[in-house]
Every structure is written in structure tokens, then in C-alpha cells.
Amino acid sequence: MLYGSMSVYSPLRTWLKQASKGGVPQPVILLVGASGTGKTTLATHMIDEAGMHPHNEPDLPIEKQVQDARSPTFLGLRRVLMVDDASDMNKKEWKALGEALRGFTHPTIILLHDEADCPWLIRKGAMLIRMNTPRPNDLLKMLTDIRSRIKSQHSNQDLSHISEMAQTWREAEHMMRTAPPGFRFSELERVSFSAPRRQARMILKGDHDGSDFQTHPLSILSMADWNGSDPQILEAGITLHSHQWNVDGLSRIGRAFLTTLRSRTQNRPPFRKSLSSSSQF
Predict the structure, then answer these.
(1) Residues 221-249: pLDDT tens digits?
(2) Would you tell me which of 27, 37, 230, 269 could form a disulfide with 226, CB atoms 3.0–4.6 Å apart?
(3) How far is CA 236 from CA 78, 130, 203, 247, in A?
(4) How many CB atoms sit inside 10 A of residue 231's CB?
(5) How many beta carbons lie within 10 A of that of residue 106, not counting itself?
(6) Is 221 in contact with 234 (CB distance < 8 Å)?
(7) What is the pTM of this model?
(8) Residue 23 to residue 140: CA distance in whole angstroms
(9) Angle between helices 39-49 and 6-20 (to 10 degrees)
(10) How far apart are CA 146 and CA 142, in angstroms?
(11) Sheet strand arrangement including 53-55
(12) Angle, nearest 10°, between helix axes 156-165 and 169-178?
């Protein structure tokens, strides 16, 4: 179920409907919003709704991702190329994406935190959709549904407090799943970060306070892998992340575990290389 403003959903739904019938005037969409505002969830849900397949292979070179997106799935579904965590791409990767998209008419959704992160040559011909910060009423609806689904004992007042404090969908759900019923949410101290990438560096350096983070888990895993974190600990983190959608409550455990990763350096990976290059699982 989707929550929030239809002003975001309607343009994307219309665009995907056109794409499912053969083509769109603007084949690239920039889906812009802070981490946790539901970009990946929204795109995946609506691509499925339109009868197409979300094509997202972050471990492959961008040229290979674009090439694979040209062909239909085994079941004959048209692929929609999804470039996730695009704000973490370096100049070389953006250049490769721009070159690969020349003459590429298949529907493409680029997910990023700020449209300024996207080079002008790609941005100028793209359709821009901004993800709004969720309103407290929308967060409350989501939390109420989650409470019913997981049979939580949180009171209406608890959910109201969370919906007033949380700034993203992910933060609201995390607060509900990790805080006991009756917790004094008003005493929580919010910790802000200048950029999601900085959170990964702080975690690996040991400067993070252990609270939940906004950066994508794969950003932490990729940086940890590149900077030589303990392979066994890294393998455990990858395993927890890969199974979190199949086991109820595992997401919270996996995210907490990632905050324990450490590395001597915190350099940004120059390429989106496979996590399995230094870890076998």
C-alpha cells in the first residue's frame, strides 16, 4: 500500500503507463528525495503495477546494466532501468551512464538525493519528480497499519508522537519497531548529518553513536568492502541485508549490525564493484 501525496504518484504512474505501451517523450526520470522518503519502494511498486520489471543490478558496471535493460525478462516483461543511490556515483560512473543512455529509449529511473548530483547533459532531458517529506497524518496512517499487521502494543499516543517526530517513512517505522510501548519519545535527541555518505564514513571510523542511519545499507557495505573490513564480519552484514525482506524483524537487526563495521580507512569506492569480490557467501 502506498501512502502520501498523489501529486508525486500521479506523474510517475502516467509516465509508466505510457512506457508500458511502447515509449515516452522523456525516457529518463529523476526521482529526487532524501534517504528514507520511499524512492525505491515507490518506483518498484509502480513499475510492478504497470506490468513491467524493475531492473536494478548495482553490482554490475553501468554499461552492462543499460545493455541488459534492453531485453525483456524470461516472462516477456519490459524492463525499467533503475539506477539507485545515484548521488554516490563518481564522475567516471556518471560519464559512463551518460554515454550508455545515448540513443537509449527504454524507460529509466535515476534515484538520487539532489538533482544537482546529476550532470546537466542527463538532467536537461529528464523529467523531474520530487519526493515530498511525509506529513504526520500520512505517517500515522502507515504506523497504524503496521501496528495491526505486527500486532504491536503501541498506543495511539505512541504512534502520534512518532509521526510528529519522524521526518521519513523509514525513520517512523524504525522508531516504532525499536522503541517499546509507552517510551518517552519527547526525550529523544535527534542526530543530523550533513550528507548520507558521511554517515558511512562515521560508522566505519567508529564515530557513529549507534543510532539508525539514513544512508543506504549497500553504501556502508561497499565502503567497508573497499576499505578492507574484516571479511567474516562483512559477510555476516551482507547475509543479514540480503535476507532482511524475508524474515520479520531482521531489518532492524541487520541495520544495527552494520553500525558495528569498522575499517582503518574510509575512502570512497571508485567503482560500483561486486561485494563478493573479497567475501564468499
Answers:
(1) 888 888 889 988 988 888 888 776 666 66
(2) 269
(3) 34, 35, 16, 15
(4) 13
(5) 19
(6) yes
(7) 0.66
(8) 37
(9) 40
(10) 6
(11) 53-55, 79-83, 108-112, 28-32, 127-130
(12) 140
